[in-house]
Amino acid sequence: MPSTKTFRNPEQVRRFPNGWIETVCHGETTIGRFHMEPGWRWSRDVRPIAQTRFCQIRHQGVVLKGRLRIETEAGEVYEVGVDDVYDILPGHDGSIVGDEPFEAIEFASARLYAAPADGDRVLAAMLCTDIVDSTGHLRRLGDSAWRELLLQHNHHARGEFNRFRGREIQTTGDGFLAIFDGPARAVRCARAIGQSVAGLGIAIRAGVHTGEVELIGDNIRGLAVHETARIAGVAKGGEVLVSATTRHLLSGSGLSFESAGVHELKGLAESELFRLGDAG
Fold first, then answer.
1. What value does the CA radius of gyration of the chain take, rounded to a whole number of Å?
2. CATH node for 120-276
3. Which residues have a Cβ under 8 Å from the Cβ of 155 and sit 6 or more positions away?
4. What angle do CA 199, 169, 205 make, to 5 degrees?
5. DSSP 8-state class, residue 55
6. 266: how many CB neighbours lie within 10 A of its CB?
7. What tens digit of pLDDT does each residue of 140-162 get?
8. pTM of the prediction?
């Protein structure tokens, strides 16, 4: 007989100020029914649990009741209402619109949403990328064509993440932060993304660092995350730069590097960085 479960008897109820989520599980899939009261706001009611500046969980679901206002980290604002099927990317705040409670069914976020931070610390190879001169591309192409180009870039990048077993942590407007189980995969993924998007007429810069991070739900945090972003910020168009730690770990990998000099990374100590060569 087919397996059936009901929200009349949820397996778990996670409560937070002005709301709750009920969940049931089928195998590896967790389905959640979200309920938020008028006045609920993520940054006030859930952020103390998540311990992140913005919600870093991806939401995919359908609205059953009420309206939800989304404000993204990039400054975009939009609303979803009854019967809307939504896909809300990481990096956002949310609040209830009006005097009616909000209810929705979700699949992508239900397992982790509003769960206490586990705080597990792991060693990870991190990759940070962004598109070179994105503002110039936007000015030249206009809003609509730039959005389409950005979607194509994201599609190419995510394909390479899958190929090299990377885990997307968040988008950064015109780039990504991802983690890998080894630095060689992170570096090769960075190079593959650059080669893949070159056909779109754009170039990326990329930084790779290896260090200990804290896992908070679907997000990561720690000094090593900031260092990875700073390294990517130093890179020029088409370059993949790695930290000295990562370079040391890649001895014998077949990847070749040359010194890119000593750089002062904002808010961090001076560090020698290494540029990925053509071999390997």
1. 21
2. 3.30.70.1230
3. none
4. 35
5. B
6. 10
7. 999 999 999 999 999 999 999 99
8. 0.60
